[in-house]
Design goal:
Blueprint: H1 2-18, H2 28-34, E1 44-49, E2 55-60, H3 63-75, H4 82-104, H5 125-135
Antiparallel strand pairs: 1-2
Helix pairs in contact: 3-4
């Protein structure tokens, strides 16, 4: 009986990890098409949420948003290294996610919540990856 429980636990753990992977090559347009998400258009992005892009909401970047993002990028220490560039981008993405969360009501909790599917306030890794791709 103990072996069965261990096996079930291992299968459940493997399924949970596999549930949030998306290994694709090619241009982002293929990803957008697969999840029925409009690619970014000017100052508008379609934001995925509710797990695996079950819900999509349009977010418009206003001039103030762009100025705030530029300010965050400028404030990040610069030494012309890839590390500092990635750090500046990470801060910018964090700011974008806060702005979008405030306007669209997305209050994503950290970690994978198996009961979060369909909850419009939550995002899984497909939502996060799709959104980050759009922001970039």
């Amino acid at each position: 009986m103990r072996q069965v429980r261990v096996l079930v636990s291992l299968l459940f753990a493997a399924a949970s990890v596999a549930a949030c992977t998306h290994d694709r090559n090619g241009p982002p347009q293929q990803h957008f098409a697969e999840f029925h998400v409009a690619p970014p258009d000017g100052n508008a992005v379609e934001v995925c949420h509710a797990y695996t892009c079950q819900m999509r909401s349009t977010f418009y970047f206003h001039p103030r948003d762009i100025a705030d993002i530029a300010e965050v990028m400028k404030k990040t220490k610069r030494d012309d290294s890839p590390f500092e560039e990635r750090r500046a981008i990470a801060y910018a993405i964090a700011l974008i996610e806060r702005k979008i969360g405030d306007r669209l009501g997305i209050k994503d909790r950290a970690g994978m919540e198996f009961g979060g599917s369909g909850d419009p306030t939550q995002e899984d890794c497909v939502d996060e990856a799709t959104n980050t791709t759009s922001f970039l």
